[in-house]
Amino acid sequence: MGNQIAHIPNQILNVETYFNDLSGYDYVKNLGVTRFLKVAKAKTRNGYCVLKIFQIVDQSLPYDQYKAQIQEIYSILHEKEQSPSPLKNCLPFQIVSKNDRSIILTRPYIKDNLFYRLQTRPYLTRIEKKWIAYQLLIALKHIHHVNIAHGDLKIENILLTSYNWVLLSDFANFKPTFFAYEDPAEYYYYFNASQRNVCYLAPERFYDQARMRNDINNDTFSTSFGKLGTSEMDIFSLGCILAELFTEQPLFTLTQMLDYRTDGYDPMPIVNKIVDIDIRAMVASMIDRDPTKRHTAEQYLNEQTGKAFPSCFYTFLLPYVQKILKEFSPDFVIYKLHRDFSYIINSLLIENTNTNENSMDIDEEKNQESSQCLLILLSLALSCMRKLKHLHSRLVALELLRLMIPLVDDQIILDRILPYVNAMLHDDYHRVRADAIRTLVFAISSVKNINQENADLFSEYLFPTLSTSYIQDDCYVRSNLAKYLSVLAEHSLRFLEKTYLIEERNHTVNTDHFKLYEEELKSVQTWMQGKFGDLIHGENDDQNGQLAEAVCRSDLIRLCTFFGKRKTIEVICGHLTTLLSQPNWRLRATLFDSLVTVASYIGLESELFILPLLNQGLVDEEEFVVYRVLKALACFVRLSLLKRKTIYEFLRQVAPLVCHPNLWLRLSVIEFINSICETSHLADVHGFVIPVIERFFKFTIVQVGNPVRK
Q1: Considering only CA atoms, which of 554, 556, 536, 538 is closest in space to residue 483?
Q2: Which of 21, 152, 215, 534 is catalytic?
Q3: Which helix (H) or strand (E) holds 54?
Q4: What is 114-303's CATH superfamily?
Q5: What is the pTM of this model?
Q6: Distance CA 181, CA 204 (A)
Q7: 152 is catalytic
Q8: Homologous superfamily of 15-111 in CATH?
Q9: Beta strands across the sheet bearing 47-55
Q10: Which of 25, 55, 64, 413 has a CA 20 to 30 Å removed from the CA of 480?
């Protein structure tokens, strides 16, 4: 262990064996075993942690020296007058314990590292990758400022929280700095734990055997604390990491690194795949073979202000996020983001405006980067949503999402926001579930660009959740679902049709595709038909017909468009006709408002099913229901949905209501008569209308119609 050749143990013991020597640590699982270190996840009273276990073979090695160095790194990065290491983007080993057979290093457990995050959906966007690169430079700036070199920077040692906060881990002061390039065994022993055969070490760390090992490993440069490597070596490793981050392709294998050391390999074809010109130039500078030509982390940060990294990283985003992390709790984060939302938007938009004024030649993507930084704060908000403790915090979180949704890309809504909103549909509080439905509909309505991957979003993802007991067992939640059912139907059809159009443009349409489209449409319509029927008829907890009333008050024209004319008559009209038997007079009154919408979609064919409903409504015991029937009759006449013979029959039936003591009924009858006269020929008015109504007036009727306004 360290800068001297360690004796390799002949026997590798099971990781669980070492827990017999530890107290306060409960073994959880094995995270990997190599001949150098055994790694395990453990649980303590303070949470989960990672244990890295080194098996002692040679007692003569200076283990206490390395233990002291590890503890000193931790103490320097946790100086009281400075911010703690998480705010410096560092997570060094915190506890080092030593016994007769092992040395155990401990640090907090973080689920993801950068290597796994690059392979996990939703994939990182370009602005998120820049945010990670910026934090890495900030971290190196801090540790180099206090004369600490990392020594083993690689993509696996960069830990990422769920909100993309970077933490440098596994500082390698106990690993050798230099290697004989003719014999790679020691390199593989110390630096190839992942078995990926990727090299991140600087070329100057490889020497030929002509130089004696003792001259390398025992000189002051390599053994003094903080000088196990140089800042230039860390910068080279960071260049390799950034190249892999932006191209998703490793820059060097060990063989390629050894060739690069002698100018036998050119990594620039990979570096040139980086789209951003400034990032590309920075990476090319970092991986220069000459260490003296590599800049410091602080110099790169200063050079790339407003270029590779948006200025808001420096002026707003980093200080703001650090301030939040100092008092981090999920509820606090949500409240603060919601309270500061106007300030956040103003800061980002002002930054974007300044960029446009001062850099007219920068492309459109550069101009929009500052506003795209909102995605970083969105990730912070989403990471807190499942850990919120209070009802009000969850409602505020959903409101915050509704504020952010119009400002982010469609793919961000589908890949990131929808899963969290979908999870809120399972919340214990019914108010949260109801508000989650509202947020879900708002998010779906905001999506304009749809790809083929989203064709079955509704049938395979959203509809099963909306059918769970969390939604079905509460009347308040179902009333919100009823309110937005027509909107869900409209957008489910829109997603299907746009997916079909995409495939048609790509010339991939065939018979099988039509069958799949029909099957998917049938599946969606079947679910919507069943849900519509359930909401109309209600359950035992909906004796007053509140759910049916909510459905009738929704935009039924969208449901009609979704089902088509034939299914509208079969499904919607079939269910609506049953509502007149409901005891709730408000529901019966609302029914006639919705009849106008449905009949206007169907056309003249609607007369067959609306006539019985109108006749029954005119004799309803509630005067307000009769009033709504008369208003509906006037609308039907203006829309030409009733035959002339039917209109005159209704006129004879309702004309006596002109004398009714209820003013509303008298006015609604007059409106119905006016609608007939407006749509009839003058001869028909004098031949069919006036003879019917004149006996109910004290004066002779000369003309029927609205007064002419001058």
Answers
A1: 554
A2: 152
A3: strand 47-55
A4: Transferase(Phosphotransferase) domain 1 (1.10.510.10)
A5: 0.86
A6: 10
A7: yes
A8: Phosphorylase Kinase; domain 1 (3.30.200.20)
A9: 26-33, 38-44, 47-55, 102-108, 95-98
A10: 413
